[in-house]
Amino acid sequence: MKRLGILAAIFTILMLAGCKEKAGDLKDSRINLDGKWVQVANCAEGGPNPVAWLEIESNNIRSCVQQPGGTYNTFKGTIRPSDTYGNYKIDWSNGYQQNASYPVGVLKLLSLIDPSIQSTQCYTQNPSYPPNSQCQF
User: Is residue 20 located within the same domain as residue 6?
Assistant: First the structure.
């Protein structure tokens, strides 16, 4: 009986040590998405297409998109990690929900996925293409 108790105690200690190690690894491996992002023409080549921008600060995300008439729409939202490393959920202020992934491809793009139609838009951090001055972040 004592041996069983000792084995249970050792097993518990090993499990707790493993959990602490995993939590530390997760903290060290967090991706920092903070900054300004510009949309790219397509997710494979990554050439800038400066008609849409994202700005991410902590868990806040703002989007600015140029409309066909030349006006700009802005939205605010919250970005949070999903249950899988490198995957995120975005809850926009207008009720729309999106998925995101980073890094995507060799260019390490941030992709926003529309789950209803499975379309993807990719963004890169490129200071040469800052958000348009008409974007009201």
Answer: yes
Angle at 27 between CA 101 and CA 37, to 5 degrees: 35
Same domain, yes or no, for 55 and 107?
yes
How do beta strands 60-66 and 48-57 pair? antiparallel
Percentage of the residues of the chain whose pLDDT score is greater than 90: 58
Nearest C-alpha neighbor of 46 from the set 98, 121, 128: 121
Please check whether residue 104 lies inside any domain of the structure. Answer: yes
* Separation of alpha carbons 53 and 133, rounded Å: 11
Instruction: Say if residue 22's pLDDT is above 50.
Output: no
pLDDT digits (tens, 9 = 90+) for 85-106: 899 999 999 999 999 999 998 8
